[in-house]
Amino acid sequence: MSPTLVQTTADLSYVLPGTTFYEFDSERVGARFGVWVTLPLLYDQEERDYPLVFQPDGNKAAPTTAPPAALLRDDPINPIKPFIQVSVGYVGEDARRLLAIRARDLLPPGEPLSSEVDESMLDNLPRAGMLSRADARLYLDHLRDPHADRFLAFLTEELDPALRSQFRVSDSGTGLHGFSYGGLFASYAALSTDHFEMVGAGSPGILHNSTVLDLYDQAVADESRPTARHLHVTVCERELTYPSTYQDLVGRGAVDLVRRAGQNPVQGMDVTAAFTPTESHATGSAASWFSFLRECYAADSPTSTLARVHPSGESQ
């Protein structure tokens, strides 16, 4: 008898050790979200509190960034302070059409759109196999009427308190990282609230007339506006150097934001920037995440004996 493949559903611990999955109904958004919570490796052994670090686009972010989390504090090269990783995504029908749904949550209200956002998407997206025609229409509608303000309220007013009631959470160091439209949302959040102290904006889709740039100018003019304490902006090298639509959709606006920060700093907010070499928009999300952690959550030294062992297994 020849061997056969047996289809089954993998236990979450097989691919995301230390991660628990929850579903959460948001009154602010009027939708149900999926939430992947990854605890530090020694959470059950240590009597201490940990900062929360949020990510949107959890359906992609959790599988690509949560598995290394257990090793970050013991990395002898780039040790990271332990934190509770919270990846927020979608469930059910919304998970299948997340390209359309995330536009609802990640674009600021009134955000200008590029000239490429038009009715032709209703044919192009189904032809590319990305969305059905009905979901392409939903995507276009959400792009034209987004509500990142509601999603931000969900994170800060609903999900954050729920997590603090269940886990040992520090009062300081709360973070947020997003990539692409998630990076646009992170930039918007960094200039709209001080709930997140550390914010990472990876390849944010900031156009030349983005509301984010207006918010930055408002923060410069009004020192009483709440903002993040640290905003770290990353752009993929090839989004800038390779001739493509990403030069205008990502590179130009991100560089403009960093330029403004250098010329007119916002009182109380540090802005740093980094390029992720060789990456494109399709591959840069995880690299942006780790750049953010190294910049905002770096530890002085590894915290366990694992870091003092060579790859060969021989102790130093």
TrEMBL record:
Family under the similarity heading: Belongs to the esterase D family.
SUPFAM superfamilies registered for this protein in UniProt: alpha/beta-Hydrolases (SSF53474)
Keyword Hydrolase applies: yes
Keywords of the record: Hydrolase
Record-given protein name: Alpha/beta hydrolase-fold protein
PANTHER family given in the database record: SIDEROPHORE TRIACETYLFUSARININE C ESTERASE (PTHR40841), SIDEROPHORE-DEGRADING ESTERASE (EUROFUNG) (PTHR40841:SF2)
GO MF term set: hydrolase activity
Highest taxon in the source lineage: Bacteria
Phylogenetic classification of the source organism: Bacteria, Bacillati, Actinomycetota, Actinomycetes, Micrococcales
Keyword Hydrolase: yes
InterPro entries: AB_hydrolase_fold, Esterase-like, Siderophore_Hydrolase_D
